[in-house]
From TrEMBL:
It comes from Paenibacillus harenae. It comes from the Bacteria. Keywords: Iron, Iron-sulfur, Metal-binding. The keyword Iron-sulfur applies. PANTHER family: SLR0285 PROTEIN (PTHR43432:SF3). Residues 21-269 form the Radical SAM core domain. This is DNA repair photolyase. InterPro entries: MJ0683-like, rSAM, rSAM_sf. The keyword Iron applies.
């Protein structure tokens, strides 16, 4: 994005204690603060990290320095206290455009290869994740890539997340992960209007799908999303029916025609380790 501000920061800690909402995780890990993808529905806009900042969400990214050094230290301490289950990331995308050059996420994964946590979920929507397949292979079943694919319709994606990577690039990345034997899931979250072809597109690529929406999945029963005003986009497109608590059933029913039911998870269950 033009005029985006990048700042190098020196955090004191990198591994944060997991909050109650993410069940099954002991820690969260955010290589960056802020996010260039700037999704219209991003609920981080309503969180302190964004509210206390003067700049608009999506226009700034803080790049955490010495992150791997901190992680190595904190991981070995945390492992002495119990199982270390990491969610990376909760309030940024670890494969931000800045990651091409900065490699903070890659350095964190290298630290995890040397000092493996019990589990790490890598949540992204970026094809850049494919660059680190060599490291995921070394983490084996301790890692799962969760690739956000909210819809199969590129014109819908462009309406809601114009700065995010194209859907085709994400599907291609899921294919590469599957070819390399890396555990991965397609995360339809938040679900956007999609076509009946969507399940058939994902079937050859994954054996795990997670479906979530604003009402189950924004941590506040949809209140945060309402404040952001994303409903206006649905209205503009004449697709209000997709902005309803029951809309996920349309997608769910389509998916269980194509996938075994036990491979299709709803909301929080789909993010669990
Ligand atoms: S990629 Fe995630 S963190 Fe970044 S703007 Fe989109 S929803 Fe928010």
């Amino acid at each position: 994005m033009a005029n985006e501000s990048h700042t190098y920061t020196y955090p004191k800690t990198i591994l944060n204690k997991g909050s109650g909402y993410l069940s099954g995780y002991s820690h969260t890990l955010n290589p960056y603060a802020g996010c260039s993808f700037s999704c219209s529905y991003c609920y981080v806009r309503q969180m302190p990290i964004s509210l206390f900042r003067q700049e608009q969400w999506g226009t700034w990214v803080d790049i955490k320095q010495d992150a791997a050094k901190l992680l190595r230290k904190e991981l070995s301490l945390a492992k002495r206290k119990g199982a270390v289950m990491i969610f990376m990331s909760t309030s940024t995308d670890p494969y931000q455009p800045a990651e091409y050059k900065e490699r903070v996420t890659r350095s964190l994964l290298e630290a995890m290869v040397d000092e493996p946590p019990d589990f790490v979920l890598v949540q992204t929507r970026s094809p850049l994740v494919r660059r680190d397949i060599d490291l995921f292979a070394q983490l084996g079943d301790k890692v799962r890539i969760s690739m956000t694919v909210e819809t199969d319709l590129e014109h819908i994606r462009k309406q809601f997340t114009p700065e995010a990577p194209p859907i085709a690039a994400r599907l291609k990345t899921l294919q590469l992960l599957a070819d390399a034997g890396i555990p991965a899931q397609a995360t339809i979250a938040p679900l956007l209007p999609s076509s009946g072809r969507f399940p058939k597109l994902l079937k050859p690529l994954v054996n795990r799908v997670c479906i979530d929406d604003y009402f189950m999945g924004d941590g506040s029963g949809g209140k945060r999303t309402r404040k952001i005003g994303v409903e206006a986009i649905y209205k503009r497109l004449g697709l209000e029916d997709w902005y309803k608590p029951g809309a996920y059933r349309i997608v769910y029913d389509r998916f269980i025609e194509e996938f075994p039911e036990e491979q299709v998870y709803i909301s929080q269950k789909g993010f669990e380790p």
